[in-house]
Amino acid sequence: MLNAVYIKLSQATVLLPVFAGLLSYKKLNASFKILNWFFIMSIFFEIQASVLKTIYHNNMPGLHLFTFVEFITFSSVYFMNFSGHRLVLYLIAAGMAVFVLLAALDAFVINSVWQPNNISRTYSSVALVILSFLFYYFMLTRDYEFHSWQYPMFWFNTAVLVYFALNLFYFMLNNYLIEHAFMVAHNSMRVHAAINIIANCLFAKSFLCFRVAAVKL
Question: What DSSP letter does each residue of 92-154 carry, written as one string?
């Protein structure tokens, strides 16, 4: 019972970036408006995951779609904020194209929509972690009028790094753990829930930075 409440609490924290984004919506730039809509859609993904798990005891089809939307959204945010770095923009676009192909193969050829999408989730995690490191470097090589932690992209980038770097091995080994070490998989899910809470708090902070007009961009 307590574990179920904990998991639901983790899922409910998606409301933090949703409300923070809506509070700051008029000041958001185009990339963060897209991000805000992603978190609004995430509410419905969480609902359908609970419904499918109750009815079919399997919510993997929704996870495949969520991973697709998540990666495309986050990649688009990076694409729109890596201004002046043409090579990185080409790499992001190529990475998105590779992901689309890999996600389709993962869902319909290698695995199925009813199995965990460990291949596409692992690829998305590695790609986004690389982008997060590149963006930190990008920030270090620019002159800012304010401290870096006053900028929305700093908190977004930190949230991406925390969530995907810490969950990388969970995503990579999830199928194996479910089949060969169920208790480890179950405990890994609890760790994932804690990381999800932290990441959603960081995403919420990124939206709140826009409420200070001077450091909007």
Answer: HHHHHHHHHHHHHHIIIIIS-TTS--HHHHHHHHHHHHHHHHHHHHHHHTS--SS-GGGSHHH
